[in-house]
Design brief:
The chain has 5 helices and 18 strands. Strands 1-5-4-6-7-9 form a 6-stranded mixed β-sheet, with helices on both faces. The chain has a 4-stranded mixed β-sheet with strand order 3-2-14-13, with no helix packed on it. It has a 4-stranded mixed β-sheet with strand order 10-16-15-12, with no helix packed on it. The chain is an alpha/beta fold. The protein has helices spanning about 100-110, 130-135, 145-165, 175-190, 370-385; strands at about 40, 55-60, 65-70, 80-85, 120-125, 170-175, 200-205, 210, 235-240, 240-245, 260-265, 275-280, 285, 310, 315-325, 325-335, 350, 355. The chain is about 15% helix and about 20% strand. The radius of gyration is 20 Å and the shape is globular.
Length: about 400
């Protein structure tokens, strides 16, 4: 399985020439009916993208290997509501409601692992497509409708609450465009509203969430603070990633916000209390998708890997840092040329072999700390379930 999906917003930059936009937003499929299971990319109890095999090959620093078998929870006690990033290859400005390989693959790589602890719900939605973004980046006027994408997710959320929630705590999970949509949903429907009591945590990854300098709340969200503990509920985890030795250059759109006195939120899932820590990574075996270079051999002997994921204990460390106006999660590769394991990982966005440094490691925002995120969801759910948790 190729990791097309952790492409985030910008995989369109890898295509040579913008294709024709076939339709306007008004021409695409009618509003989805989320009472129909077919309007959902993932729902509990189905064999769908969020039930994809999550087995991982564990490669230690000395090159030894083992297989970590994945087992989904048999009776999960909380829910996860996931909104996927920009992946649709539809030729319209906004996507249709038919899941292609790209939507299924992104859910398999970003959401399915959370089934270890929670019921996973992921609506299909008429997102702004890669086709539209590519044309926009080429300077073309495109009738892409972000409000349409938001309206769909809002409708799906309302249906989930009415049909499925039944008082369960819920973790919101998004990446890139998905995180942006969820941020607006939180602002309009959750932050300071009665439904906030259902929030275990929100993981808005690969997007900028504004917070006042030195504070945890009061920017984009008025009543939901940043997370500082794995045992804290009702809080926000958000970050964008860059290599520690390649900080955001001037003009980067990630890690900075336009509001005066505000900064982009950064919470390190490997160490919510602060500081640098080794992260629990789950990386794509062959790389980070079509916008990235292909991952080379994982060990010096070039032995193949049979699983879709590689877990490399100790290989990566993460830390929230500030460089000028930018606040971001710095990723360090703990390379050791003396051992047989790889000293490099892929995940940068590249065009024609040139790395776009202003995008950082956007393609692997989630994989660099996927294990930490899944563990956090379960621990925060336990905190939420305590009488004082919500």
């Amino acid at each position: 399985m190729k990791l097309i999906a952790a492409l985030g917003l910008l995989a369109a930059t890898t295509i040579a020439a913008p294709p024709a936009i076939a339709q306007t937003a008004a021409d695409i499929a009618p509003a989805p009916d989320y009472t129909q299971d077919s309007a959902w990319l993932c729902r509990p109890g189905r064999t769908d993208a969020c039930a994809a095999n999550q087995d991982a090959t564990v490669i230690m620093a000395n090159g030894t290997r083992s297989t970590e078998k994945f087992v989904a929870a048999s009776a999960p006690k909380f829910d996860c509501f996931y909104v996927y990033p920009t992946v649709s290859l539809d030729k319209t400005p906004n996507s249709d409601m038919i899941a292609g390989p790209e939507e299924n693959q992104v859910a398999a790589f970003q959401a399915a692992r959370f089934a270890k602890s929670c019921r996973v719900f992921a609506p299909l939605y008429r997102q702004v497509t890669l086709t539209a973004l590519q044309a926009i980046m080429a300077g073309k006027a495109v009738p892409a409708d972000r409000a349409l994408a938001y309206a769909d997710v809002k409708a799906a959320w309302e249906n989930y609450l009415a049909r499925d929630n039944k008082g369960h705590g819920v973790v919101l999970i998004g990446h890139s465009q998905g995180s942006g949509v969820l941020k607006v949903l939180m602002q309009n429907e959750i932050d300071g509203k009665p439904t906030q009591k259902l929030l275990i945590s929100a993981m808005l990854l690969g997007t900028n969430v504004a917070v006042p300098q030195g504070k945890d709340v009061g920017g984009d969200l008025k009543a939901i603070p940043l997370c500082h503990s794995a045992d804290q509920a009702g809080c926000l985890i958000s970050y964008v990633t860059f290599r520690n030795d390649s900080p955001p250059p001037e003009g980067s759109r990630f890690g900075v916000v336009p509001q005066p006195g505000m900064v982009a939120a950064c919470t390190n899932p490997a160490a919510l209390g602060g500081g640098k820590a080794v992260s629990d990574n789950y990386l794509g075996t062959t790389g980070a998708g079509i916008a990235s270079a292909r991952q080379g051999a994982w060990t010096a002997d070039g032995a193949p890997v049979s699983t879709s994921f590689v877990k490399a204990p100790g290989l990566l460390s993460t830390e929230c840092v500030a460089t000028g106006p930018f606040h971001y999660l710095a990723v360090t590769v703990n390379a050791d040329p003396a051992d047989p394991r790889t000293d490099t990982i892929v995940g940068d966005v590249s065009v024609g072999g040139t790395i776009l440094k202003d995008w950082g490691l956007h393609l692997i925002d989630m994989p660099v700390a996927m294990g930490d995120l899944v563990t956090l969801s379960a621990r925060q759910a336990k905190a939420w379930a305590k009488p004082s948790g919500h």
